[in-house]
Design goal:
- The protein has helices at residues 35-48, 69-77, 92-105, 111-125, 129-136, 140-148, 154-161, 167-173, 179-192, 196-210, 221-234, 257-268; strands at 14-18, 22-23, 54-59, 62-67, 82-87, 238-242, 248-252.
- The chain is α/β, with parallel strands linked by helices.
- Among the domains are: 2-105, Alpha-Beta Complex (Conserved hypothetical protein from pyrococcus furiosus pfu- 392566-001, ParB domain); 213-277, no CATH class.
- Helix 6 packs antiparallel against helix 12 (257-268) and helix 8 (167-173) packs parallel to helix 10.
- The longest helix is centred in the middle third of the chain and has 15 residues, at 111-125.
Length: 277
């Protein structure tokens, strides 16, 4: 992580700062906070004290939060006037990276918030996927997979944000080229509680209507199990087709150059030579 943060981030001493002088992190990737969880945290802090200070940076006549928004909100519920804080110097880039890392470590972000945080690092600070992955402690394919979710129709993204659909459901819908059809399937999946496999089956049915298959997809249960494992591994559509003479083909679908590189890395364990061009 340190290699991707600005050198102005230095350790500081704990001091008490008035809560009213602390502004929210303008780079905060998390948009929603569950009130019941904040109240539970407040009860814990009331019983055990604030075990970890929040982190802020000085900004003109006030402070901006770097890390610890849930803790800040929780002590606000308790009616505290001041909160133990560490003041650090930090650039906007550092502000966003630290906010992402803290939320990821505490499992506080939904997949869309995480994806949008990565997109902000890419767009605002020109960070490549490999750099983002190193900064937040993820592998590059995970970052690439999440960024792909931003290509989904808005209605599907909202279903992921509110927990109606998982990231797995959303990835299955990426195989649908027609945005309207993807939105319809997403709404139906959320309403009827479809599994990821059911979405994949419906998506496959949509694809079959568009073109005739030259070779039949396998019906062998063991091969179908392998096909399912490959889909999970590559997080995309994989089809195994059998031919005469016990031969066959494995088709792996990808969605653009970055997705191709992601799959290449998963297959070979090596980074694509196209990365960084």
């Amino acid at each position: 992580l340190g290699d991707y943060l600005e050198p102005d981030l230095q350790p500081g001493e704990v001091q008490k700062i008035r809560i009213g002088s602390i502004l929210p992190n303008p780079m905060q990737p998390r948009r929603s906070f569950v009130q019941a969880e904040l109240e539970e945290l407040a009860s814990s802090i009331e019983a055990n004290g604030l075990l970890q200070p929040i982190v802020v940076r000085a900004a003109a006549a006030h402070y901006e939060l770097i890390a610890g928004e849930r803790r800040l909100r929780a002590v606000g519920i308790l009616g505290w006037d001041e909160v133990p804080s560490i003041v650090r110097e930090a650039s906007d880039k550092t502000l966003l990276v630290l906010a992402l890392v803290e939320n990821l470590q505490r499992e506080a972000l939904n997949p869309l918030e995480e994806a949008e945080g990565y997109a902000s690092l890419s767009e605002q600070f020109d960070m490549k996927q490999a750099d983002i992955a190193a900064a937040v402690g993820k592998n590059r394919s995970t970052v690439a997979n999440l960024l792909r979710l931003l290509k989904l129709p808005v209605s599907v993204r909202r279903l992921v944000e509110d927990g109606s659909l998982s990231a797995g459901h959303a990835r299955a819908l990426l195989a649908v080229d027609d945005a309207l059809r993807a939105a319809e399937l997403g709404q139906q999946a959320a309403k009827e509680g479809w599994s990821v496999r059911e979405i994949e089956r419906r998506v496959a049915g949509t694809s079959k209507k568009k073109r005739k298959r030259k070779r039949r997809a396998t019906s062998d249960p063991m091969v179908k199990a392998f096909e399912s494992q490959l889909r999970d591994h590559f997080s995309t559509r994989v089809t195994i087709r059998e031919q005469v003479g016990r031969k066959g083909t494995i088709e792996i679908q990808y969605h653009g150059p970055e997705d191709f590189e992601r799959i290449y890395e998963l297959m070979t364990g090596q980074e694509s030579s196209r990365v960084g061009e």
